[in-house]
Amino acid sequence: MENQLQTREQKDLMPCEIMQKDEVAKALAGQMINNVTDQKLRQTLILIYTMVGLRVQHYPNMAEDTLLISFTRSEFGLKTLDELLLAFKLAIKGDLEIEDVKVYDQFTCEYIARIMTAYRRWLKLRSAEVVTPKKNIMNNVITTQEEKLADIA
Fold this sequence. Notes:
The structure is a single chain. The chain is mainly alpha-helical. Helix content is 59%, strand content 5%. The chain has a two-stranded antiparallel sheet with strand order 1-2. It starts with a helix and ends with a helix.
């Protein structure tokens, strides 16, 4: 009984860093961008637009949307949707080493690249601390943690 109480208290007092490790591990285990539909990626990008404060009237048009989806797949396809969200969350919180996170009403490929590059550096520094399952089976494709982390470099 005392052990259960102590464990419950430890969970309540869990430092942010430990919770962040759990969040990263969960993000690494998510669906890879290359394995999701354009619609699912578009929904994630719309959520990110809201997170960064992009006003609706400045959302990308269809041509820009297609370009953003294509760019995201080609450059960050081995990342997961959850990592994409986590990268922007960390940038907004100021946890990434990046000069300027403001979107200035222009959500561009360069903006995604800037955030994701800072996220890759951040993840590389913390990759040894994060414990994830060794294999992730999705659509009959086996992706190891090493393959996901190889995308960091």
